[in-house]
Amino acid sequence: GPRSMYLLYHEELESLARHIPGIRRMRFWMTFGESYLKHLEVIRNLGLDAIEPVEFQGRQIVPLQFLKALLPDPASLGPRTRGKTNIGCLIKGEKNGKPVSRYIYNICDHQTCYRETNAQAVSYTTGVPAMIGAKLMLEGTWKRAGVWNMEQFDPDPFMADLNRYGLPWQDLAVDIDIDALPVE
Length: 184
Fold this sequence. Notes:
Blueprint: E1 5-8, H1 12-19, E2 28-31, H2 34-46, E3 54-56, E4 59-61, H3 63-70, E5 84-95, E6 98-109, H4 110-117, H5 121-139, H6 155-164, E7 170-173
Antiparallel strand pairs: 1-2, 3-4, 5-6, 6-7
Helix pairs in contact: 5-6
């Protein structure tokens, strides 16, 4: 269903802008549940996100490190994580001289991933693409001297392997005014 999106910085924007010609604007959004946002607000209000040491019972502690010690190990969250991820690209441009808007995306279920790998979908959707990239390099499909970003290689073998290794994607024509999406 509908979710509020939040515009964020994400490091992929830097390499994509550098290596894909013709991109005029890129933005990265994420959605968060209300409970998650409320927890972040409480953490901030209590100062537990601070990185500067504070004195506590005669000792210097860093609040964020203290919070990390209190929180559960992220690896332990898999059995309790419910719902789905939706990772996608909303693209506007031209193809064969005609305007086109596409939404290319994957939906991944946390519990399905956990049953298969003992990890939730966020870990799965991070690990599978990394494995595919390593596989393509080892096979010689993606091979050049030097350091390269994945967007500098042919995407077709990677996209085919996403389908093959558990992250099937869909490609939909969409009628959405991308330029009307929030910029803040």
